[in-house]
């Protein structure tokens, strides 16, 4: 038995030593940005740090806890000279990080006063394969939109640098949120992409649908009164926010009809229930003929 156990245990110990060494490397916080609805963006730099789109890291802040490590999806693009995470303040540890970064104070916080951070990673996810397809469906639920911030930024950098060599030609982006507050920090990125795509006369490259799955009567009345305005009252985007949940069967059939004979990547970051739905739709809308349309499902769950 010890012969079978010794090999895996040796590999495990080597992996733990590598992670320990990597987590001890110096990390510098270059900027902390406070977004609406108690969400902060932490921008960092680390020597030799290399990432791909949609990857995640483990973060430890000794000023908050000397033992706790928490996973966060990277929201920056590989083309940027820093890496960043978005942290929504929803618990004791995130509240401690919020205060340690001086976000609870009104005055400007000097960089040398920012807390020390330890980073382990990055680690790979299914989102890395997004550039392997000509057509992709990106589905984010709530804070599950964070890996797609990295994807959309990277797509834009690649598109501006050399659009002819970019295999990815069409993105269908879906974002499902329970309340309006969650839209605020990510809508800025979509507004920027929307404006830049229109300047380059390629507004069709990115199609996005934003769904609000929960609202009260007063909000519904406000939406109806402002429905005729040019831009959406919630996000400020030209694409109006939709209410309720998508009819996934119709969405898959529509996309299949527009891209016959294609391999379409379906990427989800969201709950297990939604993963089951999209997986079933990917199977049922894929054709048996190898030359027909095929949906390839990839998921991250939280």
Description of the structure:
- The protein is 32% helix and 26% strand.
- The protein is α/β, with parallel strands linked by helices and 302 residues long.
- The strands form three sheets. The chain has a six-stranded parallel β-sheet, with helices on both faces. It has a three-stranded antiparallel β-sheet with strand order 1-2-5, with no helix packed on it. Strands 4-3-6 form a three-stranded antiparallel β-sheet.
- Helix 3 links the parallel strand 7 (135-141) and strand 8 (170-177).
- The longest helix has 22 residues, at 2-23.
- The two termini are 36 Å apart.
- One of its GO terms (molecular function) is superoxide-generating NAD(P)H oxidase activity.
- It comes from Eudyptula minor.
Features:
six-stranded parallel sheet, transmembrane helix, single chain, alpha/beta, ubl conjugation, glycoprotein, 32% helix, FAD-bd_FR_type, metal-binding, three-stranded antiparallel sheet
